Every structure is written in structure tokens, then in C-alpha cells.
Description:
This protein is an all-alpha fold. The protein is built from four helices and no strands.
Amino acid sequence: MEIKVFPGYLFWSYSQKADLPEELVAEHVILYGDLEDIFRLSDLVSHDIIAKVNQEIFNSGRWPKRSYFIKKVILGL
């Protein structure tokens, strides 16, 4: 997935021309993106992938409130 549609600060260590796996893009956006970025991700990536990555983040104990928000608001679960 091309990352140029997201702000550069989310993928500062990658070239803006990089083509990254959807799971990696979802992880970076979920962890570090703002609401606009998360909604954009929701339009570009399947909710199954977002749910999988979000659950992995939640299980790791990182950003539990953010993970819960994404689960309820973005994924509607």
C-alpha cells in the first residue's frame, strides 16, 4: 500500500514512495495517527485487517484506550 496519502510524520523512516504491507500501515496509523488519518485508513483498508491489527495492539497492552475507541467507533464492534 502506498503511504503518500498519509502525513509524512507517520512514516518518517520510510520513503514517501514506499509500498508497505497494509498491516504495517494500519499499525502506524492506529498508533500514531490523528482522527483524520484513522478515518482515511478506514476508507482504504478492509475492516478485517484493521480489526486484526487493532486487536494485536490491544493484546500487547499499548494504547488500550485508543484501541477501544477504534473498536467501537471505527469498526462498530
